[in-house]
């Protein structure tokens, strides 16, 4: 498992790599690290990509570093040397299954649920975890409202429509800095079109003071979708029309419907279908693949003045990318995700090797609990150790 760790750059080409965590082992090292290939710095994303770093004679590849607003540099990802120890799939699956079914850990409170982990080609592990106090069983084919997990799908739709070339305006809307942050929760009527939902109540009202500041709200995507060409031009579409258009662009092998024409939260689908979407991202079949983790913005108002509101505990300092979160708090593992308010939690790990889905419905505010359980299952999978 590659974890996010923070270290400070020095002017020289040789730096000290403060911690490397890979596979099931951790090494605390203080050794010279030689940058031995051409590094590329993206001024828009503040990400430095180094193809190869030599650490005591061992090559580490695809090192990605980001300069954070607090002046620290976050290690977003790296690939360890060839032959680095990694758990076998059987031990990964056993550890993840035992963790999902465990009693007394973070997964106990979220029962019943369905979970799944796979790679770009197929599902590798998963199953239903029932509850002794509920008759509900969630399975791979159980339809459910995924709430904010819809955001990742809309961002992927936009990236596909743009041929992978998002505009500056697209990015501002998709990482929630457009100022259109007055949409109420569940702010569309089932009979609305995309445009009539924007016109409803204060959904389409812009807050000038919030332009270029992060504010987590569905109004950004709703307004973006309604804009005429060269915008997305989806204003006339109702639930059925919107679902047909999204499937036309992302693939008819992804079954979904909209219960209200809200781009940021209106989708009902299954864990199986969302997994198909995630596999396409891992396989590079969707343009969104190249945008994972890019254009990241600070989301915690206690950490930066460029953030107004995030639906996370103040103790978490994740960043937000193009329609998805980067779980890069110092205590997290750098996964990409798009959790929904009712407990649906999809993710791709920081190495972009595996996807996961934790699927359930709890209208009592379930997102944080699902994140805790899903991250625990992910850690068990990446390490091969029961959590």
Structure overview:
The chain is α+β, with helices and mostly antiparallel strands and 387 residues long. Strand 3 (20-22) and strand 4 form a beta hairpin. It folds into two domains: 5-79, no CATH class; 144-383, 3-Layer(aba) Sandwich (Beta-lactamase), CATH 3.40.710.10. The protein has helices at residues 89-100, 150-161, 168-174, 194-199, 219-226, 239-250, 271-282, 367-383, and strands spanning 5-7, 14-16, 20-22, 25-27, 32-35, 40-42, 47-55, 58-67, 73-79, 113-118, 123-129, 144-145, 214-215, 257-258, 267-269, 297-298, 307-309, 319-320, 325-326, 336-337, 345-348, 355-359. It is globular and about 50 Å long. It starts with a strand and ends with a helix. The longest helix has 17 residues, at 367-383. Helix 1 packs antiparallel against helix 8. Mean pLDDT is 86; it is low at 1-36. It has an eight-stranded antiparallel β-sheet, sandwiched between helices.
